[in-house]
Amino acid sequence: MGKEIFYFLVFPGLIFSGVIGGILSWIDRKITARVQFRQGPPFFQPLYDFVKLLAKETIIPSRGSATTFVLAPVFALFGASISAVFILLPILGVETGFAGDLIVIIYLLNIPSLTFIIGALASGNPLAAVGASREMKLILSYEVPFLLVLISIIIKAGMTINLAEIIEYQAANGAFIGSLSGIIGFITIIMCIQAKLGLVPFDMAEGEGEICDGVIIESSGSILAMFKLTKYIMLFILPALITGLFMSGLSFVGINILWSILKIFAVLLLITLIRNTNPRVRIKQAMKFFWVWMNLFAIISIILAIFGL
Q: 148, 302 in Cβ contact below 8 A?
């Protein structure tokens, strides 16, 4: 029991993933600032933001369900933390009873998104409801190509859904991103991750200029702090998952430490550049993009994987 609690609270769960996610958030903001010819925030700005929110008053909306509104960020943070444990343990090569079942990971990764929706609807704010509606439509759009890409990965790895075995297969036979089906699958999953993180061009659920932060419009104080920490963790574990699925995972031994950092940084850089070079699209455009083009890409990736390409 003590080991499981350590995994969840310290490494590779809540504290470790939160710290690394905060650093990646700073890198993301720094790159964004440089693209816009600005200086950017200091290194500890993500920590300052989180601590300031904890110190501020938490306002509970008078309309809606107060209990559900308060519990939503707790479950969001729990979902992100437990996802970090189940993703990072096999990726880092830590041997445990759980070796990274992709089906379990898929379910866990949906918890934060669903709790954002539940919290927004529980606030009783009509703008939050609009944001929740957009988030639901977005989930229904990007989850299908996301799952199809995972099918192509499973086919390439010899029909295993075990993340540790997928990583071992790549170590023995080469990273999947070096194949044609892997490249197409990588492009598809990057766009799905962009939407799952709620980043431009798929940030319509928050849409600051349209619905005033939408799903989190009523969040404040510690509630907003937990949502922010959840986003920090997701900003780390989703790129880490991509490295496990396409780039043979991560390793913190010897020179592999530098190589692992470069893998995460490369994925983050790509996500950040997409965010800074595209305008926000409408929810209708996003749904069409995923249902038509990303599904097509994912199906092509599956067909190529079947033929060993």
A: yes
Taking the domains of the chain in order of start, what are their residue ranges?
A: 2-306
Query: What pTM was estimated for this model as a whole?
Result: 0.94
Angle at 80 between CA 94 and CA 198, to 5 degrees: 125
Give bridge partners of residue 101 from the DSSP assignment. 162
State the average pLDDT over residues 230-244: 95
Q: How far apart are CA 103 and CA 108, in angstroms?
A: 9
> Three-state SS across 82-123?
HHHHHHHHHHCCCCCCCCCEHHHHHHHHHHHHHHHHHHHHHH
pLDDT per position as a tens digit, 108-156: 999 999 999 999 999 988 989 999 999 999 999 999 999 999 999 999 9
Q: How far apart are CA 309 and CA 304, in angstroms?
A: 5
Asked if residues 13 and 82 have their Cβ atoms less than 8 Å apart, the reply is: yes
Measured CA to CA, the distance from residue 50 to residue 59 in angstroms comes to 17
Q: What are phi and psi for residue 101, nearest 5 degrees?
A: -65, 120
d(CA 43, CA 201): 26
The tokens describing 13, both together, are 């769960």
Which DSSP symbol is given to 39? -
CA neighbor of 20 nearest in space, from 95, 80, 106? 80
Longest dimension (CA), the chain: 58
Measured torsion, CA atoms of residues 15, 20, 24, 26, in degrees rounded to the nearest 10? 60
Say how far apart CA 181 and CA 167 lie, in whole Å: 17
Tokens describing residue 83: 């996802």
Alpha carbon distance 251, 14 (integer Å): 20
